[in-house]
From TrEMBL, chain A:
Keywords: ATP-binding, Hydrolase, Nucleotide-binding. It comes from the Bacteria. SUPFAM superfamilies: Cyclophilin-like, PH0987 N-terminal domain-like. InterPro entries: CT_C_D, Cyclophilin-like_dom_sf, PxpB. This is KipI family sensor histidine kinase inhibitor.
UniProtKB/TrEMBL annotation, chain B:
The keyword Cell membrane does not apply. It comes from the Bacteria. One of its GO terms (molecular function) is ATP binding. Residues 24-301 form the Carboxyltransferase domain. It comes from Marinomonas pollencensis. This is Biotin-dependent carboxylase-like uncharacterized protein. InterPro entries: CT_A_B, Cyclophilin-like_dom_sf, PxpC. Keywords: ATP-binding, Hydrolase, Nucleotide-binding.
């Protein structure tokens, strides 16, 4: 895509700013790309191992860090993070095992009511939409909206569609959807305005298990088309909208 | 041993200091809307700082004790009574078996805290009992439900009781209109006029305010309307949506968002704000980050000096 993608990430370009008395924001870049995402993923992991770090929120170009105020003041936290950054380089990123997660999806009208509309909008057949969506490997750039809702990008340009004019009040659990250049799976029932293509039988979150959420920021994610029989065999539900 | 819930109240929630360490998965923290009131409840009883309490919003709650214990009431004055006798917040009370504790209606502030000796005995989910209804996490059942009539709130019975009261200087003034904040995030992108609007105007708390965010209404702040790449939302973030009416994001806030933010209210300021009712007026008071740190240190020191 852009030239920026080819250039190595410089940890020296990260800025640290305090946003309140117990949180600071690390800004990595002003544009979104995979190199930036790699760097954010690495720094997030390292920071979470640090004593006195309460929470991290990685996003597209930034990382919010909440720390124990009993342990750090603004000067101490900035020094601590800066010294961590000074000891990182791109080789650390390469050595990090990038997870690939494969999510089975039953693409069909009965669970993907926007398939035809998307196909019409993109000037393709439904089969072509399915093929294109499941051929691409996506990157989890951010998690939010609801717990475990991962914003995956980028969809192929020909698949870019706007959100629905009127969001649905109820999108069923496991719905796989697209909007603009992103795709996502709804981890639970929620309102939602994205275009729904199908449904996965795989639970995205399970707070009772050790894995908690299937997708973390930085993961690579791929979708794999399955039949209705496989969907049901894997525990998929056909409940309506 | 337990309290029986005779009347559930408008919005009564089990809370601790919050669900920390899961925001990278999109899980919000929850926790007490008025953090220092909550902290005083546990301090007065010499509980662990994170011991589970009830956050009682507005009132209309009645509990009956099945066993003796010692309680502390802090935060708002909701016209509480113990066996029909009026009692005041910010102190401890001995409870006998059969005692009836009622929170009626707000006299000052909006949210009261009820701490019990040793803390409510509830199983945590993701390390916390904090109730977040939107995420269906925490609380008595673990599924994010508010307290209902007939619920049983377990505690460890004790006849041990120490009469304690919060020092007057440490009790916040809930009539204070100034809400302390620090400038951060996209504050520097505001025009001079917008900055003046933020600090020189009063804003009204609207009815669309809840544990997620306090929506304010007043002179609109223009901003540049461009939106930003979604980023992490810190506690107290003052978000600027397209209509220019600020939203202060509090304990149940979403973890990331793409609206610009003008700064953050401090943890103490957020507690003051959370005691405001729809129609109450506030204004933002600008602190330096140093001042915000000092404010917090002072509040924590007051807690540790309790004897």
């Amino acid at each position: 895509m852009s030239q920026a993608e080819q250039q190595p990430f410089e940890f020296g370009q990260i800025t640290i700013e305090m946003v309140n008395e117990q949180s600071c924001l690390l800004r990595f870049a002003d544009h979104i790309d995979d190199t930036v995402a790699d760097a954010i993923g690495l720094v997030t992991l390292r920071l979470r191992d640090l004593d006195g770090i309460i929470d991290t929120i990685p996003s597209y170009t930034s990382l919010l860090v909440t720390f124990a105020i009993e342990q750090y003041d603004q000067v101490a936290i900035c020094q601590q993070i800066q010294s961590l950054l000074n000891n990182l380089d791109m080789a650390d990123i390469k050595s990090r095992v990038s997870r690939e997660i494969v999510i089975p999806v039953y693409y069909a009208e009965e669970v993907g009511p926007d398939l035809q509309e998307v196909a019409d909008h993109c000037g393709m057949t439904v089969e072509e939409v399915i093929q294109l969506h499941s051929q691409t490997t996506y990157r989890a750039y951010a998690i939010g909206f609801t717990p475990g809702f991962a914003f995956l990008g980028n969809t192929p340009e020909v698949l870019h569609v706007p959100r629905k004019n009127t969001p649905r009040l109820k999108v069923p659990t496991g719905s796989v959807a697209i909007a603009e250049r992103q795709t996502a799976v709804y981890p639970g029932v929620s309102p939602g305005g994205w275009q729904i293509l199908g449904r996965t039988p795989t639970p995205l979150v399970d707070w009772q298990s050790d894995s908690l959420a299937l997708i973390e920021v930085g993961d690579n994610v791929r979708f794999e088309a399955i039949s209705q029989a496989e969907f049901i065999a894997q525990g998929g539900q056909l409940d309506g909208f | 041993m337990a309290f029986n819930v005779i009347k559930s109240g408008v919005l009564t929630l089990v809370q601790d200091l919050g669900r920390h360490g899961y925001q990278h998965l999109g899980v919000t923290t929850g926790g007490p809307m008025d953090e220092f009131a909550f902290r005083w409840g546990n301090a007065l009883l010499s509980n662990h700082a994170n011991a589970a309490q009830l956050e009682i919003t507005f009132g209309m709650l009645t509990l009956e004790a099945q066993a003796p214990t010692s309680i502390a009431i802090t935060g708002a004055d909701l016209g509480a009574t113990l066996n029909n006798k009026a009692i005041l917040p910010w102190q401890t009370y001995a409870i006998k078996k059969g005692d009836v504790l009622t929170f009626n209606q707000p006299k000052l502030g909006l949210r009261a805290y009820l701490a019990v000796k040793g803390g409510l005995q509830i199983t945590p989910v993701l390390g916390s009992v904090a109730t977040v209804m939107r995420e269906a996490l925490g609380g008595l059942s673990g599924k994010g439900e508010k307290i209902q009539k007939g619920d049983i709130l377990p505690f460890v019975a004790t006849t041990e009781h120490q009469q304690r009261i919060t020092p007057r200087l440490a009790i916040p003034n809930y009539e204070q209109q100034n809400i302390p904040m620090v400038m951060s995030y996209q504050f520097t992108t505001l025009s001079g006029l917008d900055r003046a609007r933020l600090f020189c105007n009063e804003y009204a708390v609207t009815a669309a305010s809840d544990r997620m965010g306090y929506r304010l209404s007043g002179e609109a702040i223009q901003g540049d309307k461009k939106g930003i790449i979604s980023e992490g939302i810190a506690y107290g973030s003052i978000q600027l949506p397209n209509d220019g009416q600020p939203i202060v994001l509090l304990r149940d806030r979403q973890t990331i968002g793409g609206y610009p933010k003008m700064g953050c209210v401090t943890s103490f300021g957020g507690g003051l704000l959370a005691q405001k009712k729809p129609g109450d007026m506030i204004n933002f008071q600008c602190l330096s980050l140093n001042q915000a740190e000092q404010e917090r240190t002072r509040k924590m020191t007051q807690l540790s000096q309790l004897r």
